[in-house]
Amino acid sequence: MSHHDVIVVGTGLAGLTAAARLAEGGARVLVLAKGVGATHLSPCTIDVLGYAPDRVSDPGAALAGLGEDHPYAAVGRDGVAAAIGWFTDAMRDRYPYTGGLDRNLLLPTAVGALKPTAVVPETMAAGDGSDPVLVVGFTALKDFHAPLLADNLSRAGIAARAVELGLVPEGRVDVNSLGFARAFDDPAFRAEVAAQLVARLGADERVAFPAVLGIADAPAAWGTLRERLARPVFEVPTLPPSVPGMRVFAVLRERLRRAGVRVILNAVVGGAERAGGRVSAVRARVGLREVTYGCDWVVLASGGFASGGLELDSRWKARERALGLPVTGVPTDERFRADYFAEQPMARAGVAVDRDLRPEGHENVLVAGATLAGAQPWREKSGDGISLATGHRAAELILGAAVPSEPARAA
Amino acid sequence: MAVDHDVLGDLMRGSLDHCVKCTICETFCPVSNVTPLFPGPKYVGPQAERFRVWDETSPDQSLDYCSGCGVCTQVCPQGVHIAEINTQARAKLRERTGFKLRDRLLARPDLIGRLSTPVAPVVNVTLRHGGARAIADTALGLDRRAALPAYPGRTFQRWARKHTSPPAARRVAYFHGCGANWSEPDTAERTVQLLEWLGCQVDVPKGQLCCGLPAQSNGMFDLARKYTRRMARTLAPSAREGVDIVGTSTSCTLMLKREAREILGLDADADLRAVSDGIYDICEYLLMLHDRGELRTDFRPLPITVTYHAPCQQQGHGIGKPALDLMALVPELRVIENDATCCGVAGTYGLKQEKYEIAMKVGRGLFDQIADAAPELAVCDSETCRWHIEKATGVRTVHPIEILHRAAGLAS
Prior knowledge:
Chain A is an alpha/beta fold.
């Protein structure tokens, strides 16, 4: 049986953050995951707290108003700030972020709603503001509707109009956002885009693009367009697949690679070996085999109901699928409310933890991300903020608890 | 209770219901990312599968451009067996469209090896001589630029028959695969020498032939089943004796470990089940020994730089990258890990005329990384990938075993 200081379950933002921070801190880390995590589906703006329940302008201050059972309570404002500092630093060279806990930016979404968010890619930051906007779409990019975005933005009081370009990368029939992002890595393609736009710009318009401005080198693609168009340019997150999410995944994955972290995909964790309050190994199904991996610590970041980390069966019984941890907060009477955007009782269900992110009865298991009970990420706009903050916090707690050295091996 | 239908195969196909259309597989697919000819694993897999009724024909044949690298299954967060669904569907497609002579030949590496070895000098010259190769390639539909195997004119099996492994406390059975037997006997011999140095008595079960993977990849499932059953019968006695089986051909090892059971409907084959449970990729096995503190690690310094590419089929094992952990035990060895999912060749895919350009585009990132690193050697676990990488980069490309063999001081 292999042995690692820490096994991290999950490859979303929480798992990748925990694994990268732990490896930097000197821990031997093994990442087990069913597949690639939710970064590819997320806009990857770090929404710390957008609504509580009214729109929040100062997320750092608003954290104090959350209940004791909210995941942020275990991290605290300083912990959230530390996580943001770590993340911003990690992204600096290849995909820089800006913002902080003092002020929420209001960025347009793909449907033109304004979303409060705290820490965002520099390529998106100019979306915050009141100057008029020219929304650029591509007729071949079927999941991004520039006129819809422009209309809704206008209704929100920001003058906006749309223009759609007919450019099609490589003559493809069906192009998704990644296909466009690859095209934007090519200087010739972005020069053509800029050339087609220059004559159509209004005097003081900012320019919005779908978030497809490059995948290998987004800052370069974004920089070229700003320069050529001589005005603020910003990206708006699209439907999945999310190019910003892929950029973040690539940076964090590369960090793991450099730190020598072993990552095993298609490993479906489904049990543990326990002694007293400690987990000494986790069991996973890999292919047709069951494999046991020894460890001193586990960071469980396998996601919530959407990612399959939590499961609700037809008898209304919820379970946490990797370690069988108790799930709290499943409502017994009113399951769902008819108003989609109302507070949904199910949203807070998850694994409850103590101030050290440990579920009841577990000394060396820490839970991070969407598996945690107590938050309503969709309503609060707190999803990636919680994932980043708790993933980082879990790593700090383990590093602070003196990782036992690896067992001696025969020479 | 006897079950006469293919439960595991049904589970593979049934997994398509777990697809939430997140498109994560499409973002990782090395083929659809370089050519519009392949619309992507989700599209041809869980999506198109809903419209495939076995007695109806589909006008869409883009599935043929799937290379079978398996990356889609690896990255799927919902447990959809995309690659397995596509391999099964491709076989149905080929049954309908017929098999090319080329594909019938590629599916029989043993036959080619057996015919080529006695006349190796002639074959090697033909394969490397532009004119003769061009004629052969045009006739068959192979690409004349593709890296085909060379035939040294001797086989590993002949070497193994004359070799006696000294008795040792640990016994392992060595599954060498066709590539090592006919084209890379050096790799196989070094494997035996290294295992012996590590304190293993090495059995080489006699009569090892093709595992069936190339036939499976080319859609000839009946032939593949015949080959797989025959190979499993050859190795099963070792497995039943409790002797661990180790393989250096990582794709063929994966075939016997998992793919044949999942894809070919052979899950009920008792021999295959025994072999599947007891077979390991060689690096997986050695790292397992190391994890138990049972691996000899007094390697000599090897002050060179190598790059390491974990091939797609190796990643299909779900074992991480044990070659990296093993090479880290060699003092002064500098290993640069490549960041690439597939080199492009994917077994026999990149040899075909209509797919060679795609294979080269898929591999370009990897080739550039290797060129930038300017290593003494490139390291990769799979034969066809090594030949493809070596031809594309000009850098000699070896199995990780060769590095350990050198570091053990066994290289003459």
